[in-house]
Amino acid sequence: MIGVLQGVAMLTVGIFGFAVVLNRDPLPQAMVFTFFGGSLVVLFIVLQAPDVSLSAIVVGAMAYPLMTVLTLAKCRGRSR
Amino acid sequence: MKARTRLALFAIPVVGVAALLLWSFAGLPSFGHYRGPYGNEINAQAVPRRHTTNAVAAVNFDYRGFDTIGEEFILFAAVMGVSALLRLQRQEHKEESPLEHARAHASTEMADSVAVVCMGLVTPFVLLGLYIVVHGHLTPGGGFQGGVILASAFLMVYLAGRYITFRQLSPKGLLDAGEGSGAGGFVLVGFVGMLAGAAFLENVLPLGQSGKVFSAGTLPVINLSVGFEVGAGLLLVMWEFLEQALMVRS
Amino acid sequence: MDVMPYVLAGWLFVVGLYGIVTSRNFVHLIMCLGVLQSSTYVLLLEVGYKAGGTAPIFFDAKPGPTAVDPVVQALTLTDVVVGVTVAAMLMALALQTHKRTGSLDPADARIMAG
């Protein structure tokens, strides 16, 4: 049976995953993707996986946003 | 092809994929009723036989260490791919003094509070990264997580506005050497097992007492080498991206 | 109702695939790929979950059958870090494509014309 905490965590992950796809502009999408990573971390903790949630925290907080923003900064201001 | 055609061509198979997924999910054991024997066996045997209190690390580096070598080399190849893709092209040149360029194009001032906080966080991040790497076989953690934290410690220097200091603190040759020695160290530990007469990557160092830092044989050594490899690799990737964004002009 | 957690993994998979197919921007595409990858992590961890189970760390707990499966956690843990490095390589590809064609739109990247 699903507990209340797990049900809420799964619902949040599903909603944020859909929000990541629906944001077509990459810069706002990067911010929503960080929220998606955060909800994924909560789901991993609730599913009793501390190692995996530690991986997801460090990756979602440091690596993903930095490389996305740097790519967008380099690719900005070029004429089509 | 147009976007609407692509969407129509996608809609029909995805319904089929969704139906197949639902059918397969109905065949899985219901959520919470774990059936398989391997998890229970490893949970029962990891502490007495391997003297490690982190069963996940025991699976990663001891029972299935060969798969982790494969994963580590995927990371190594991806870092090599980034280095190769972002090399300096013929029609590009590197800005000689990015400081002058930055001052000429500065639109916002770097806030002092951001700089102070980021510089203050460098040492705690290094300590935290080393702690998580070294205690990987005791508590949740290990080489992969600790390596990313070690890389982000150096990135804090860049976030404080000190890009030149960041370049001086992490010279590319040292990062290359660190990454290579981390990846090679893992394979070398495997060969040590073969030299001792056992199989490749078998745990041949003394197992010690579970709960202490020097326990579980080869696990701390492998954690250290993986931590160096992941940290140096991710730092190299960020180095390349930062150089592209800040210094390379065509 | 006991199949609902797995439906989350299927939902993330389909949503990520939809994002990749209908994407107009390479960076958007790479993040949708990240959503797709996380659907596999969720499915793996849910398969190994035990109702009322604890984490498979025995630093201050007695080892026994009450802990959840550590094998799937070991698989997922390395995958998360390796996945971000592969995404970095894809971003480098997108950057180079932008340098040659001037836009991040997949529809404009027709370099193989002669």
Description:
- The complex is a heterotrimer of chains A (80), B (250) and C (114).
- The termini of chain A are far apart.
- Chain A is 81% helix and 0% strand.
- In chain A, helix 2 runs antiparallel to helix 3 (50-74).
- The mean pLDDT of chain A is 90.
- Chain A is mostly helical and 80 residues long.
- Chain B has one domain.
- The relative contact order of chain B is 0.15.
- In chain B, helix 4 (65-85) packs antiparallel against helix 9 (172-195).
- Helices cover 70% and strands 2% of the residues of chain B.
- In chain C, helix 1 packs antiparallel against helix 2 (26-47) and helix 2 packs antiparallel against helix 3 (70-101).
- Helix content of chain C is 63%, strand content 0%.
- The model of chain C has no long low-confidence stretch (mean pLDDT 88).
- Chain C is mainly alpha-helical.
- Chain C has one domain (4-51, 66-113): Helix Hairpins.
- The chains are: A mainly alpha (80), B mainly alpha (250), C mainly alpha (114).
- Chains in contact: A-B, A-C, B-C.
Briefly say what this structure is.
Chain A has 80 residues and is mainly α. Chain A is built from three helices and no strands. Chain A has helices spanning 4-22, 26-46, 50-74.
SSE layout:
The complex is a heterotrimer of chains A (80), B (250) and C (114).
Chain A: H1 4-22, H2 26-46, H3 50-74
Helix pairs in contact in A: 1-2, 2-3
Chain B: H1 3-27, H2 37-50, H3 55-63, H4 65-85, E1 93-94, H5 98-104, H6 112-134, H7 143-159, H8 163-169, H9 172-195, H10 219-246, E2 248-249
Antiparallel strand pairs in B: 1-2
Helix pairs in contact in B: 3-4, 4-9, 4-10, 6-7, 7-8, 7-10, 9-10
Chain C: H1 4-21, H2 26-47, H3 70-101
Helix pairs in contact in C: 1-2, 2-3
